[in-house]
From TrEMBL:
<dbReference type="GO" id="GO:0016020">
    <property type="term" value="C:membrane"/>
</dbReference>
<keyword id="KW-0675">Receptor</keyword>
<keyword id="KW-0812">Transmembrane</keyword>
<keyword id="KW-1133">Transmembrane helix</keyword>
<feature type="transmembrane region" description="Helical">
    <location>
        <begin position="87"/>
        <end position="112"/>
    </location>
</feature>
<keyword id="KW-0919">Taste</keyword>
<keyword id="KW-0472">Membrane</keyword>
<dbReference type="GO" id="GO:0004930">
    <property type="term" value="F:G protein-coupled receptor activity"/>
</dbReference>
<dbReference type="InterPro" id="IPR007960">
    <property type="entry name" value="TAS2R"/>
</dbReference>
<keyword id="KW-0807">Transducer</keyword>
<keyword id="KW-0297">G-protein coupled receptor</keyword>
<keyword id="KW-0716">Sensory transduction</keyword>
<dbReference type="Pfam" id="PF05296">
    <property type="entry name" value="TAS2R"/>
</dbReference>
<feature type="transmembrane region" description="Helical">
    <location>
        <begin position="265"/>
        <end position="287"/>
    </location>
</feature>
<feature type="transmembrane region" description="Helical">
    <location>
        <begin position="185"/>
        <end position="211"/>
    </location>
</feature>
<comment type="similarity">
    <text>Belongs to the G-protein coupled receptor T2R family.</text>
</comment>
<protein>
    <recommendedName>
        <fullName>Taste receptor type 2</fullName>
    </recommendedName>
</protein>
């Protein structure tokens, strides 16, 4: 029924718009706070570098994703008629993976910085972590760039395939498009799996370090301030793990239902995908004392300005 299809499309566009703009504002707040600290101190620590790049990639990812999703729902043929939209799709993939891998860098950074192990390699990483972080971020961007190039190439092949069939048979080539998606699906699936395993591994290492540290304190009847640091980091990474599990599931489902537009599962996938950048950034804000303090200071001002209107 045409009215149901129109209502469904309007609902998805509304949900996407609300979640995308909420996520953009949340990450823009992180960018503004860190940039002000950068201007004031003329330098950034490793944690702030990761957060800044992560927030920037999420803002751009939400922008390109909103444009792509809006056009794909409102006017799907436009994506295949205009080649410049191939660039939008590849940029969306690039910023999606940069968002994912920079988040992994943040979890690994927390694990190495806070966990305590006597292994020589781990001690070396702990000492050199501030020098390693820029290379980790560069590697994340390069891998994301490879994904973006592959997606651009796949989109270009699909575009040429559809143009060769003619506009009157627009929906016929969809069956033939699946073979073009395999390289990008394999590469993106591999990236999702490796990043998810890295987060699980970081959470387990930090949990083991916390358990061993707590046992040593009980044996020596000592109190240590690092216990609070361990617990706070553990709460952050466990919250990361929960949100990443949900996001990982939605990313896999999105690949499964990529060619099944209108499926009932698509709506849930869209909600989860667009909620992740904002929800995870909120967790980062409330796990960072400086960002949390600045946010709590701003909220009363926002509430007062709204009441005055």
């Amino acid at each position: 029924d045409q009215s149901n299809v129109t209502s469904y499309a309007a609902t998805i566009v509304t949900v996407i718009t609300c979640e995308a703009f909420a996520g953009i504002w949340i990450n823009a707040f992180i960018i503004s706070v860190i940039c002000m600290a950068w201007i004031k101190r003329k330098t950034l620590n490793s944690n702030e570098k990761i957060l800044l790049l992560l927030a920037c990639s999420r803002v751009w990812y939400l922008c390109f994703s909103w444009v792509y999703s809006f056009l794909s729902i409102i006017y799907p043929p436009f994506l295949y008629v205009h080649p410049r939209l191939q660039l939008v799709v590849s940029l969306q993939a690039f910023f999606n993976f940069s968002n994912l891998w920079v988040s992994v860098c943040l979890c690994v950074f927390y694990c190495i910085k806070i966990a305590n192990f006597r292994n020589n390699f781990f001690i070396y990483l702990k000492v050199k972590i501030d020098r390693i972080v820029p290379w980790l971020l560069l590697g994340s961007l390069l891998f994301s760039l490879v994904i973006g190039i592959v997606v651009y190439d796949v989109t270009n092949k699909v575009h040429c395939n559809i143009n060769s069939t003619g506009q009157n048979s627009f929906w016929k080539p969809k069956i033939k498009m699946d073979k073009h998606f395999f390289p990008s699906f394999f590469l993106t699936g591999f990236g999702f799996a490796v990043s998810f395993m890295a987060i699980i591994f970081s959470a387990l290492l930090l949990l083991f370090s916390l358990w061993r540290h707590k046992r040593n304190m009980q044996t020596n009847s000592m109190t240590d301030l690092s216990m609070e640091t361990h617990i706070r980091a553990m709460k952050s990474i466990l919250s990361f793990l929960v949100t990443y599990s949900i996001n990982f599931s939605s990313l896999i489902l999105d690949m499964v239902y990529a060619t099944q537009k209108g499926s009932p599962a698509v709506f849930l996938i869209i909600v989860l995908r667009y909620a992740f950048p904002g929800v995870h950034s909120l967790i980062l804000i409330f796990s960072n004392p400086k960002l949390e303090k600045r946010l709590l200071r701003i909220l009363p001002c926002v509430k007062f300005s709204i009441c005055m209107r």
